[in-house]
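Lab notebook, bench 4. The sequencing result for the construct came back, and we need a structural model before the next group meeting so we can plan mutations. Quick request posted to the team channel:

Model the 3D structure of this chain.
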Amino acid sequence: MRPLPPELAKIAREELNEIPERVQEDLVILRTWIYQQRYLYARTSTDFLIAFLRRCRYSLEQTKKRIDDFFTFHTKCPEIVTNRRVTEKMLSINRLGLQYFPEFPRCSDHAAIMITRLNCCPKRYHMRDVMAYTAMGMELIALENDNAAIVGVIQIIDLSNLDVEHASQLGGGLLRKWWYWMNDCCPLRINATYCLNAPKELQNWLGVLRTLRVKMRPQFFILKSLEELYEHIPQKCLPEEYGGANGHMHECVSYMEDLLKSYRDYFEDEVNYGTVEHLRHGEIMPYEAEFGAEGSFRKLDFRIKIIEKGISYIYKYKYFHGNQVLEHYT
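Done. Here's the predicted structure in token form:
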């Protein structure tokens, strides 16, 4: 466990209930619990478990559930997880600049920044590959970036290059599975998401959500300009390409490439982890509670249902039907 700067140690203690003298005891409890679950094959390294403890504010029960959900997802969603290898394809996706994690300076509240852009050709890189790459990056940042693990992440999504085919690839339950991973499995906490350069149709659709008073978690904001973004995130914290002073994006790409290569064996080792569901007894599988035994949603989240249908509708017909859409999907 890395020593923390005083300001981060204070946040970890006051907001996450992290007591350094008790961490080893918590790790022993988690490792013992993992070893006792016959169906669960999970990582037990110190950094990995601490990332999940911090994500769950040191609630042992919540940490157990998130770890269980994380590795159940590995077993139940091979279309995303089996692509999580440091291959030349993944490195080429990184070089496209789809995901940026600027290092310094931090946000004023010490949160880390994550910038997501759709700079890939959908004919060459399917959204499954993009999701796998993003999941790898977020997991590594949870392990390596103490600001991200303790304070959380502010996400900026730049939709400048959003294509109709990008949206079409999110069908078949893929968006729902990604939503599930982000909310129930990911070891990083997304504090807020700011969306730039969203198509007008998508802005209108999110207006429907506001009209219905649908609460988004994490908070989701559609912004019209960089100046509006600066009202939420200090300008100096952004890369120079976004008007800030936080280095260049190619530096972020180089940092992530070096990080991915250093974790090559880590991801190769993923074949040894997951769940053996027929050995699980006395409880509902986390994945099946959400998706059903055959992968179809039982407990359908109203928010993701609206978003998924909205994206499909908007990009199929390329225009917005106002009240007609609202009546059709509510």
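Residues 127-144 form the longest helix (18 residues).
Will bring this to the meeting.
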